[in-house]
C-alpha cells in the first residue's frame, strides 16, 4: 500500500489513462496483470494503487519507486514495452509523470 509522506525518499509516479467505458474493464485487467505479474517484481518497486472514476473514462495509477532510475529501467524492459503497446491500444492516451510530494494532510 502506498504511503504518502513529504519526507519519504521515494519517486512518485502518477499515470492517467483516458478510455471509453467499453474498454475500461479490459484496461483495468491489463494493468492489474502488469502489476501482479511483472511491475511489482521489478527492482526498486515500492507500492502502487489503481483508481477508476465513476464514468469509467479514466484510470489513475499511483506508484512509488525507490529511485527514479528504477522506474525508468522498468519502462525500458522488453516486456514492459510490449505491455505498453497493448495498453495503448485500449485507451485514448496515457501519460506517466514523476512527482515529488509537496505536502500532506491528515
From TrEMBL:
One of its GO terms (molecular function) is monooxygenase activity. SUPFAM superfamilies: Dimeric alpha+beta barrel. Its EC number is 1.13.12.21. Residues 11-98 form the ABM domain. PROSITE patterns: ABM. It comes from the Bacteria. This is Tetracenomycin-F1 monooxygenase. It comes from Ruegeria arenilitoris.
Amino acid at each position: 500500500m502506498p504511503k504518502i509522506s513529504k519526507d519519504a525518499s521515494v519517486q512518485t509516479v502518477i499515470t492517467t489513462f483516458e478510455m471509453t467505458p467499453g474498454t475500461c474493464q479490459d484496461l483495468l485487467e491489463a494493468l492489474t496483470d502488469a502489476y501482479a505479474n511483472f511491475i511489482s517484481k521489478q527492482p526498486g518497486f515500492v507500492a502502487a494503487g489503481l483508481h477508476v472514476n465513476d464514468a469509467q473514462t479514466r484510470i489513475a495509477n499511483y506508484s512509488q519507486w525507490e529511485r527514479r532510475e528504477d522506474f525508468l529501467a522498468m519502462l525500458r524492459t522488453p516486456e514492459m514495452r510490449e505491455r505498453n503497446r497493448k495498453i495503448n491500444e485500449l485507451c485514448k492516451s496515457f501519460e506517466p509523470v514523476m512527482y515529488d510530494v509537496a505536502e500532506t494532510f491528515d
